[in-house]
Every structure is written in C-alpha cells, then in structure tokens.
Write a structure and sequence with these properties.
Strand content of chain B: 25-35%
Distance between the termini of chain B: 20 Å
Oligomer: heterodimer
Order of helices and strands of chain B: EEEHEEHEHHHEHEHEEHEHEEEH
CATH architecture of the largest domain in chain B: 3-Layer(aba) Sandwich
Number of strands of chain B: 14
Shape of chain B: elongated
CATH superfamily of the largest domain in chain B: P-loop containing nucleotide triphosphate hydrolases
Helix content of chain B: 25-40%
Number of domains of chain A: 1
Strand content of chain A: under 5%
Largest interface: A-B, 23 and 30 residues
C-alpha cells in the first residue's frame, strides 16, 4: 500500500511526462510504415524514456523529505517500479488509441494489434526493470551530464537496436514474423510472464542494493 | 528520561571520520549542536535520521532504534534542513496531499492555518518560492505532525530577524509540554543562546564539549590583557589564545582565575567566543567531555 503512495508521489512530480507521451502518440503515426509494429515500438520507447524522469529529477537535498517519509526503502523502490509499470501501461493505452484511429483511417488494415500491445507490454517491462536495476546499481553519479547520458542509453538501445536488427536481417524478418504469428498466443504470454518475473527480481535486487547504501 | 540517545556513533568517508559520538537529549529540552563546516554536524544528523548507516554505534528515539521499526522511527522525527528539501516541481497542494497520505498524525487544519498565516501561495511551484517561503513550508510540514523530535540543520540561516524570532517562538511552544525535544545544528549562535538548554561542540568528527548551556557559560571566563603581563604558568592555563602585537584574548577555566589580577579584564564569554577559542584556536587539547 505504501509502495503505491510512492508511485502517486512520482506521478505528482512527473505530470509533464504524461503530456510528453501524448506528443509521442501523435508522432507514432509517422512511424507506422508497413505495420503498426513500428508505431507501437516508438510508443514503447517513449514509455521507457519517460520512466527515467523520477531518477533524473532526484536531487540530494530531497533526501530530507522523500527519504524521510515513514516507509521502508523497499516501499520506496517498489513504488518507483510501479511508476515505471504505470507509464508503460499508459503508453500502451495510447498505442491502442493510435491503432483504433489508424484502423478508422485505413479500413483495409486487419492487424491483430491487441496481442502485439500485450507483447510490447512484456518487452517494455523487461527493459524498464533492467534499466531501473542499472540505475540502482550505479547509484547517484557526480556528473549529472554523464548520468543523463547513461539514463537515456537503455531506451535508445531498445528502439534503435530493434530497428537496426530489423534492417540488418531484413530477409529473415518475414520468416520470424510468420513463426511468431503462428505461435502468437504462447509468444505473448511468455513475454508478459518474463516481463513480470524480471520486474519482481529487479525490484527485489534493487531493494537489497539500497539497503546496503545510505539514502542520500 | 532521554528522548534522543546517541551512543558511540562512527562513520567513515574517504577523507572524514566521525568517531564515537555520544550524547543524550532529555525530553522537553533543546540541544544546540555546534561546529565548523565539515566538523561532522550533518553526518551526525544523517545518522540520527537513518539516512546514513553507522559503521558502529546506535541511536534511539524514545527507546526505538531505526532498524527496529523504520516507519515509527521516522514518524517521530520532524526534519528541517538548510536548503529546501521539498520536491521543487511540487506545489503546496501536492505537499499537503503527500503529508496527508503518508503520516497518520498529520493535522490538516493546523497545516492549513500555517499556510494561510504565512501567506504561502497554493498554486505556485516550490521552485519559485523565496528562501523564507521555503523555510516556512518546511516548518509547516514538520510542525503539523505529532513528532517527538525536531531536527534542525542550519534551518534559520538566511532568515530575516522577524521571521527568526517567529520561528524561535514556535520552537519554544513545541517543547512546552515537556514531551518533545529539539536537536538544533546551527551557525547562528545567537539563536542557541536564546533557546538551547544543552550545547555540544563537535570538531574533526569528535565531540569536544557537551554541557548544559548555563554550566558551559559559567565554566569559562574570557580574559584580555597585555601579553607582557603573562607568566609561563598563566599561559599554560589559557585556552585558545589569540595574540595581537601587545594584547591577547583567551578563554580561561573559571576555577583557574587565581593569579589573574586587575591588570587583566575578565568577562563572561558568549557561546560564539567559547566556540572560537575552543575549536578554531586549537583549544581541543583543553577540551573536556
């Protein structure tokens, strides 16, 4: 329960990110080329990038307020992970709206986008959990510019990495896509399961790390 | 009975070590914690608040230590720092919401009264607040809860005299019932002269002095005179001597005034002067715990 309160605190502090994601959803239309996949990928990238906001905003002086709130470090960290999950869910809701609008504009399109969105939810959750774990492992850095660079890295690797691989192995993509399509339910289920397992493991390890450190 | 009990706290950083810091603060009293920049004041506070973990030693508030029950321990503390620790992008309404949802003892009406009294704008981000407004909001946040111990880290620095007087009055009211205490780290020694009951001096990570304020002020006299009138025996008794071309000023133990006759001027020192002579001028060798 206290973890959710920390999630709400992160939301209060990062209201602007919700508006930024709305902008991402408009731009996502331009990324829809032959498939909705690229539009969803872009929105998932937006969710991952937006989720770094509470880490980027944290300042040492704030330890006197946020870290002094009556809760354990575990509550605080789980709250932060739940905030990441919330942003991802929000960006996937926007992705659904994008798909609906796209369907209205292009009635000929018959992609099964609902499973695709659940797949992105799983994949995005893995990415957000891993990047949060990385931030807790690294802790606060002296150079804010370097810290900013490191924080952006996972999201960019995710987005441009997938784009690069799809371009690099263009001839294999149809075969892979066909295989995934034929095992879509299982594939999406496993991805979602992997996402939640990664979420649980990373938040637990992050708490172990934080418990060994000062909260400054 | 002690509200705050600190025993043998130690903590090491790359170039600083806090060594065996011990003291206790009874219920209903104010302790002034004094020292130079980098002496270890904030490190001690971070250990008391649980923001840092001590290498050795322990700290209890009303018999409870942080590790036993972090939530209850933090509920008992009201902390006000030297710079605004409130999230800069939040508004007063956000802070109210956070306090209300996190603290069981939060008194909404009292908080609202203080916000109105101090005319703090509801819909302005904290980042745009002046230093005085930020301090007021920090005090409102800490005092609108049923805390047991108020910890102030240079909280009154940079405030105008009217605001300072108002804050000091609030602090007096806070300890009035004899159940609350204040641990006050500051450079504003005038404030301590007004409200502190105990004074602890820290230097290079070690407690040099820890005494009731009145005992401390009576323990020493400030001596001034002609350096040429000083005999070697007299010089040995002086604490933290500062010498000009002909004159000197030093601290002297009240029991050691024998031999200092009318050639010397003796007066009651302020906490400021005791601190300067004890710490800055190498009085550590004469320190008593």
């Amino acid at each position: 329960m206290r973890a959710i309160k920390f999630t709400i605190i992160d939301m209060l502090r990062c209201k602007i990110t919700l508006f930024i994601l709305l902008v991402f959803s408009v731009i996502a239309f331009f990324f829809i080329r032959e498939s909705l996949f690229f539009g969803f990928l872009y929105l998932c990238f937006g969710g991952i990038i937006a989720s770094i906001q509470p880490f980027a905003q944290e300042q040492q002086a704030e330890s006197g307020f946020i870290n002094m709130l009556p809760a354990t470090k575990g509550d605080r960290i789980l709250g932060r992970y739940l905030f990441g999950l919330f942003l991802l869910l929000f960006s996937m809701v926007l992705a659904s709206l994008v798909a609906i609008v796209y369907g209205v504009i292009h009635p000929a399109s018959h992609e099964n986008w609902s499973l695709l969105i659940i797949g992105f939810l799983g994949g995005g959750l893995i990415m957000i959990s891993l990047q949060y774990l990385l931030f807790y492992v690294l802790g606060k850095m002296k150079s804010q510019q370097f810290q900013g660079f490191i924080m952006m890295l996972p999201g960019f690797i995710f987005f441009f990495g997938i784009n690069f691989l799809m371009e690099e192995y263009r001839e294999l993509v149809p075969a892979i896509a066909a295989w995934i399509s034929s095992h879509m339910n299982l594939f999406v289920l496993l991805l979602l399961l992997a996402g939640f397992v990664t979420f649980g493991v990373c938040s637990f390890v992050s708490t172990l790390i934080a418990n060994r450190r000062d909260s400054l | 009975m002690s509200l705050l009990e600190v025993k043998n706290l130690s903590k090491s950083y790359n170039n600083f070590t806090l060594q065996d810091v011990s003291f206790s603060l009874p219920k209903g009293y104010v302790m002034g914690y004094v020292g130079q920049n980098g002496a270890g004041k904030t490190t001690t506070i971070n250990l008391i608040t649980g923001l840092s973990q001590a290498a050795h030693g322990m700290c209890t508030i009303d018999g409870i230590c942080y590790q036993d029950n972090p939530r209850k321990y933090k509920e008992m503390i009201g902390f006000i720092g030297d710079e605004s620790y409130l999230p800069q992008e939040c508004k007063v309404s956000d802070i109210r919401f956070i306090l209300k949802s996190m603290y069981t003892s939060f008194q909404l009406e009292y908080f609202n009264q203080m916000i109105q009294k101090w005319e703090l704008p509801e819909n302005q981000k904290i980042v745009s607040f002046s230093r005085g407004m930020k301090v007021k909001l920090m005090f409102a946040s800490a005092l609108a809860r049923n805390t047991r111990l108020l910890i102030l880290d240079e909280a009154t620095n940079g405030l105008d005299p009217v605001m300072r007087a108002e804050i000091l009055e609030l602090l007096q009211n806070y300890i009035e019932d004899g159940e609350h205490s204040i641990f006050f780290s500051t450079h504003m020694l005038n404030d301590l002269e007004q409200i502190a009951d105990y004074i602890a001096f820290i230097d290079h990570g070690q407690i040099l002095l820890n005494k009731p304020k009145d005992d401390l002020l009576e323990s020493y006299v400030l001596v001034r005179g002609d350096s040429l009138d000083l005999t070697p025996t007299m010089k040995q008794k002086l604490i933290g001597i500062t010498s000009g071309e002909f004159n000197f000023e030093a601290l002297l133990d009240s029991d050691e005034t024998m031999g200092f006759d009318s050639r010397f001027v003796m007066e009651k020192p302020t906490i400021d002067q005791i601190m300067i002579h004890q710490i800055k001028n190498g009085g550590a060798a004469h320190a008593c715990n």
